[in-house]
Amino acid sequence: MAYQFSQESETRFQRLIPQFPSKRSLILPCLFLLQADKGFVDTEGMQYIADRIGEPVSLAHVHGVATFYTMYNKKPVGKFHIQICANISCYLAGSDSITEHVCSKLGMKKGETTKDKKYTVDEVQCLGACGFGPVAQINDKYYENLTPESIEKILSELEKEG
Amino acid sequence: MGLKTLLTTHIDASDSHTLKHYQSVGGYESLKKALSEMTAEQIVNDVKNSGLRGRGGAGFPTGNKWGFIPKTDKPKYLICNGDEGEPGTFKDRMLIERFPHMLIEGMAIAAKAIDSHQGYIYIRGEFHKGIRIVETAVEEAYKAGLLGKNIFGLGYDFDLAVYSGAGAYICGEESALINSLEGRRGHPRLKPPFPAVSGLYACPTVVNNVETFCNVPHIIRMTGEEYKKIGTEKSPGTRLFAVSGHVKKPGIYEVEMGTPMKELIFDICGGIKNDKDLKAVIPGGSSSPILTKDEAMTATMDYESIASLKSMLGSGAVIILSEEADLVETTYRLAEFYSHESCGQCTPCREGTHWVKDLLHKIKKGEGTEKDVELIFSLSRNMEGGTTICPLADACVMAVRPTMTKFKEEFSLRLKKEVSVSH
Q1: Where do the NADH-ubiquinone oxidoreductase 51kDa subunit iron-sulphur binding domain residues begin and end (chain B) (predicted)?
Q2: I need a labelling partner for B360 at 20 to 30 A (CA). Which of A118, B187, B353, B395 fits?
């Protein structure tokens, strides 16, 4: 069956419509709804968004928007998406050792997904939590003031969850 | 001078984000005053009198910005810029999570000032927690009759919606943010026309930072004249300084404008980590030119003092670098940030930021030459001063060139010594 919004996403979509005088403004929130449903944004989903919003929004436009922003996953990511900040303040606080620790523990390189699709590890630019570095974002949650010991504990908890 | 709470007076309350708490400490009284006792012109004048300057980065006088909105029949839009993303900057996230009602109240007052009936709070997408908190606060405000139709029964309508960014630093630039809100790539627009004339949906628009809006209820409560007594004459008020890097107590500190940087670093933040010597300070977010230790020790935390040192107070993000900091590495990381975040519209930025980053990578690996250093300076000259639509390329230059100039020796030590160029 072709993709359509889940019931929850449909409800949120209907709430969004009256908030904007132009339907085009719905594209970014709709891509988040698609990602919440599927875990990533694909052509089928983007075509669906273009169809739901209607003229003048086309698949090409939705695709152009999706590829501009880093938060839309253009391919599937692991169940736990570990994003470690590598910019100046986190670097000064020792983020490199956190990245190395996570990669070594999970037996992978940054940018990769484990074979069991459980973890994806990425190095990202600034997460906007510079006073509490090193910082990692795992799915929706921020983890701050990380040490190799604390990230080890977090990984163990994720392992139990997963 | 020194620590002074205005926005953060109730930071210790665990429920500071709730309507109940906010109203228990006088929240929304300023909105009631603005709607019942003041005309739009009086609100604008009060904010002008306060001398409030935008807390996002540029420091433009807020009242003047509001005054540019033309009197037309077109809808006027009000946008809160919560797309905080400049390396070193992390103050707005705290305001969003702890004082969402202060933000909403500030926006509602600003709405009346510019005759806007629709506003948007644009928050960087990674701030999931903050987005949920602000959404809940907006719902609370609607239920209490503080947003929507006929606020306080005083005849003013204002609707407010939360919009999530999707991961693009450039959307912190106001015209890119507007494009993003319109469902487009976050490409900055050519100015003029300025948003005050043609912004969101080609209508008059005001875009202000989170901290700027949060100051507004306090100005209305105390009057602009009283507010102006805090801080310095040209930089009134308090400022949230986000301090990070090699300091013992990093964090967000609200201090009176004009406080000596020395006091901020050594008294308020406890001094340099591991009791090392201070090497340098990046005073206002990653794009503000670096200050040497000597410069930092003479500076005060206000727009004029930092500008006199040819840097910027910017977003109020202070990054401390001790003698242990590897400035070649930190400069490379900043260049990497700007090359990653270039939107790609303008060639000097798209090509220049990547090129500078690649050259710095070469230098940090010990494979660079004097020629590479010269090339970075040459590229920099083509990336600044209006060669691009927005200032992202300029920001990259400001993050790189002053460091390479002021700490030349540190860069020279990393070069391959056998290779040099003579002219």
Answers
A1: 328-373
A2: B187
